[in-house]
Amino acid sequence: QEQLVESGGGLVPAGGSLRLSCVLSGRTLSSVVVAWFRQAPGKEREFAASISRSGSNTYYAESVEGRFTISRDDAKNTAYLQMTGLKPEDTAVYYCAAGSRLTASRIPTLAAQDAQDDLDHWGQGTQVTVSS
């Protein structure tokens, strides 16, 4: 069974850092693009970052550009989201998603429902809370 599992969330003070991990089981990570989304309370899920199959191309939402870094280690079947300079407005549930039907460059352009439909796998989410 193909499954994504995130970990690494927690409570951090503003300015702190966290690294989220996303492990894919049942499928080779190298066959999919990977993305991170986040959903704050009362808000729609939004794109944060995506990475191509090769890892050579990465894309970021303007709100996280320069602070977050997405990466992948296909040997470990794991993708990461390194978050630095965290702000209270980064507080959200963070979701990892993966798929083979899209390019990493296409993902930032998708509406929330289209991303939900077009990405094959979604994790259960991990809570990130940034205190002020």
Describe this structure in words.
The chain is mostly beta strands and 132 residues long. It is built from one helix and eleven strands; from the N terminus they run E-E-E-E-E-E-E-E-E-H-E-E. The strands form two sheets. Strands 2, 4, 5, 6, 9, 10 and 11 form a seven-stranded mixed beta sheet that branches. A four-stranded antiparallel beta sheet has the order 1-3-8-7, with no helix packed on it. The radius of gyration is 13 Å and the shape is globular.
Main structural class:
mainly beta
Task: From the alpha carbons, calculate the radius of gyration and give it in angstroms.
Answer: 13 Å
The H-and-E topology, N to C, reads as EEEEEEEEEHEE
Shape: globular
Number of strands: 11
Estimate the helix proportion, in percent. Answer: under 10%
Q: What key attributes describe this structure?
A:
four-stranded antiparallel sheet, 5% helix
Layout of SSEs?
Elements: E1 3-7, E2 10-13, E3 18-25, E4 33-39, E5 46-51, E6 58-60, E7 68-73, E8 78-83, E9 92-99, H1 112-118, E10 121-122, E11 126-131
Parallel strand pairs: 2-11
Antiparallel strand pairs: 1-3, 3-8, 4-5, 4-9, 5-6, 7-8, 9-10, 9-11
Kindly summarize this structure in a few lines.
This protein has 132 residues and is mainly beta.
